[in-house]
Amino acid sequence: MKKMIAPILILAICAFLAACSANSALENTADPTAFQSIAPSTTETSSEKRFASLEEYVDFVFADMDKDDFTTEYMTYTIYDDKDALVYDYTYNVQYDNVEEIKEKLDASYDPENETIQYMLSELQSNVAIDSPKIKYIYRNNDGTIITEQVYE
């Protein structure tokens, strides 16, 4: 039972830390007015956005993070852009045989109305010049096989 709860707790903590890291990086900019309001403006044009692409956004927000920040006792994760999606790609540090049970628990935790996710989406909409940004979570077993994917829009 502990083996099932621990990875889920770690995923929740990682999502929280990722959101906090983004907030911290944004607060530490030299020009505090450089970012738009959290609520996306209906009159903004892409030329008014802070970042032309998700790649620029990822490079800026996570520039100060050391690669060790992306490793925990239970998993390693990478953050990257994939066209219109900000991707959090988690890989467990051990191989699990009960993949269906893990997939079921991860999928049950999928909540498109999650406050943190909605905040992150509005942050992307306000600051990145792309239409309809998404946040994608990929969970992989230690051998790299995908356990499940979740996309928030």
Structure description:
This protein is an alpha+beta fold. The protein has one domain (2-29, 49-152): GMP Synthetase, Chain A, domain 3. Helices cover 37% and strands 20% of the residues. It has 4 helices and 4 strands. The protein has helices spanning 2-27, 54-61, 99-108, 115-127, and strands at residues 75-82, 85-92, 134-140, 146-152. The longest helix has 26 residues, at 2-27. The two termini are 32 Å apart.
Name some characteristics of this structure:
153 residues, 4 helices, 20% strand, alpha+beta, 4-stranded mixed sheet, 4 strands, 37% helix, GMP Synthetase, Chain A, domain 3
Determine and state the CATH class.
Answer: Alpha Beta
- The number of distinct β-strands equals 4
Q: What is the helix fraction of residues, given as a range?
A: 25-40%
- Content of β-strand: 15-25%
What's the overall geometry? globular
What is the assembly state of the chains in this entry? single chain
Number of domains: 1
Overall pLDDT score = 76
Discrete helix count: 4
State the secondary-structure class: alpha+beta
Give the gist of this structure.
16% of the residues are buried. A hairpin with a 5-residue loop joins strand 3 (134-140) and strand 4 (146-152).
Blueprint (SSEs and pairs):
Blueprint: H1 2-27, H2 54-61, E1 75-82, E2 85-92, H3 99-108, H4 115-127, E3 134-140, E4 146-152
Parallel strand pairs: 2-3
Antiparallel strand pairs: 1-2, 3-4
